[in-house]
Design brief:
This protein is α/β, with parallel strands linked by helices and 174 residues long. Strands 3-2-4-5-1-6-7 form a 7-stranded mixed β-sheet.
Length: 174
């Protein structure tokens, strides 16, 4: 599930699993929503939380490989952009683009292997970053490049790939 910011990708991903009660919503790397320091981010997080079915379980984690290895119902992973951000934050690697790229590539490879190994239904949400301007900073470029590479790798192993633009769903599956 690819799309830009506010494109409707998360809403569409949720709709694909709305008929299921056994969904774990994985907030992949979401940073804490502190209304005192960032009220806009806190409002975004609350809106996402309120859009989920009450029967769904939520996990906030960057351990996507671990979650994929567990047994259980369907997973909705939202989103790979926040996951990459959390990985680079945790490694304090924003000022070291080569180290950040290697970290994301290593973790991305493990994620692809875990996606291929799981027998769970998985919907993965990610930002499409290839349609925007090239960032002016090295850290911005490494984020854009590595997320683009990871999106392509996930698409290669996915059964279905869609792009959500302005709330419209475009099928990309071969």
């Amino acid at each position: 599930m690819l799309g830009g910011v506010r494109s409707g990708k998360s809403r569409y991903a949720e709709s694909l699993l709305s008929h299921r009660l056994d969904v774990t919503y994985v907030a992949a790397g979401a940073r804490p929503a502190d209304p005192g320091t960032d009220p806009e981010w806190a409002a975004r997080v609350r809106a996402h939380q309120h859009s989920r079915r009450t029967s769904w379980r939520t996990r906030e984690t960057t351990d996507l490989v671990g979650v994929l290895a567990e047994s259980g119902g369907a997973l909705l992973i939202d989103c790979l952009g926040t996951w990459i951000t959390a990985l680079i934050d945790r490694a304090d690697a924003w000022e070291h683009p080569t180290a950040a790229a290697l970290l994301v590539q290593r973790e991305g490879t493990a994620l692809i292997e875990a996606l291929q190994a799981t027998d769970r239904t998985v919907v993965v949400v990610s930002n499409e970053v290839g349609l925007s301007l090239v960032p002016v900073t090295p850290s911005g470029r490494v984020f854009q490049d590595e997320l683009g590479r990871l999106n392509a790798a996930v698409a290669d192993v996915a059964d279905r790939v869609v792009l959500v633009v302005a709330g419209r769903v475009l099928e990309l599956t071969d």
